[in-house]
Design brief:
single chain
Length: about 100
């Protein structure tokens, strides 16, 4: 019985953990404009809310080009509430950011 309770609590904890995460959308490859709503520097990841209300989860890849005013800038330049234009490539259910332009 004790084992059953522990397993049940573990499953419940996992469900709560997953349900508290950021809900994201997968879109087709293309260019989107929106606002940065979260920056996770330790993961080189940003969340962007597009103009049509979708939330994109973008993990920077080796080839991602981040620019501002036409010049490449470091990831640390990204802040929440910045307007951005992102070019993404859909790879399965993942979105790879090819370029991120801070507006």
């Amino acid at each position: 019985m004790k084992s059953f309770i522990i397993k049940s609590l573990s499953v419940l904890s996992l469900v709560l953990f997953v349900s508290c995460g950021q809900s994201t959308d997968v879109v087709e490859s293309g260019t989107y404009t929106g606002t940065v709503i979260e920056v996770e520097a330790d993961k080189s990841e940003i969340y962007v809310k597009t103009e049509d209300g979708k939330t994109l989860e973008l993990y920077f890849i080796e080839d991602t080009k981040l620019t501002q005013d036409g010049k490449e800038v470091p990831f640390s330049t990204l802040k929440t509430d910045q307007s951005v234009e992102v070019e993404v490539e859909k790879v399965g259910k993942r979105l790879d950011p090819l370029s991120v332009k801070i507006q």
